[in-house]
Design brief:
Length: 468
Amino acid sequence: MNHRNPKIIIGSQEWCGFKSLGIPAIKARVDSGAKTSSLHAFNINKFKRDGESWVSFEVHPLQNNRRTVIRCERPIIDKRSVKSSSGISEKRYVINAELSIGENSWLIELTLTNRDSMGYRMLLGREAMSGKMLVDPSASFSLGEFSETQLNSYYKPKESNKSGLKIGLLASNPDLYSNQRIMEAGQERGHHMVFLNIKQCYMKLDADEPEVHYRGGKLLNDLDAVITRIKPSVTFYGCALTRQFESMGIYAVNSSTAITQSRDKLFSLQLMLKHGINIPTSGFANSPIDTNDLIEMVGGAPLIVKLLEGTQGRGVVLAETQKAAESVINAFKSLRANLLVQQFIKEANGKDLRCFVIDGKVVASIERTAAPGEFRANIHQGGSASIVKITAEEKALALKSAKILGLKVAGVDIIRSKNGPLLLEVNSSPGLEGIETATGKDIAGMMLSAIEKKLSWKRDLGVKSENS
């Protein structure tokens, strides 16, 4: 430190560094209202080293950039309950590391938490500044800025691994969070990732030389694997393409058969019942005349009415009274649609569980809570999600449900009732944003890891910190 001017003047945002973590530059929000400093981290795992508790984690040091990843390991000095700016408390591991800011450095404490959705990858709290700094809120980067060239030199992108796999992502919208994450995760691991718009693919049906072509006539026969994320409106054609890839010997993460079974909500529920999986009491009909009998067979109102073609909470209605149930069912009748009526589980209080299954393991679980005024837990309609510890029974239910349908990747939705866990449905193209944000886990990376394992591909771990 400069002893002639013992207190450093800093602005509301500054560049920091942590040599011991292998992070030469990270932009921090200066917040004297926060007691402890925090660092963006994901894939956080506790382990033992020489009898002591350590934590391994990964950091995206640059905002809006998930391709640059630094892997770190540090001893754990504490685990604390920290309340975020949104008022939610969470348990966080605490580490210490030497902070570099300007020409000065000293040891500070850092809590580890996923800050992907925040404006800054780091928050500099008052404990780290106490006695050493004064904050000028009107200033920014008082101790200097880093140019794009400097940052690029610090975080040189790893050259693409020539032995990486060639993986196609068969989907519809390249801008969706889930699709972007999968593409980024594959590229970060050294694979050649190709986004394939389902509607731009076409097939050559031939017993000896089956082919899939992409717009412009590009041949897709050299793929090692294809990740199938098929939206409901293109299920038929998407599954036809998946079958074609399978006939060419290309590994499909979710098979055409598994996707087809999961998309037929009625058939999937019948399969579940056949294998002893409990579901809410349900009725199925096509424009029924006996509306009242259909209502009574599921225990009367309140009840849920679903269109079988609905997705992400659309086409799902809560009928709270007998009269409302009759009105909704009669309205759906006019559409000449297949509809499902289902027992309403009042004790769930608008909550359900989403268990993310990859290759026979539940890798993450969240509890979803309905938005105010809504009855169904759905983050696409303003609901919220939080980490939850599931029971052994719920875990077994999720794994068995995915296995019954043959899905390697699945989002299994479960509701807690007074009679135990009940299966709501199984999604063959589960979204990643809600569960990655809530848990801080790299779900996209886990999906790629499962492909590597299936195809016996060894990963080059790439960039590491000094302590990795």
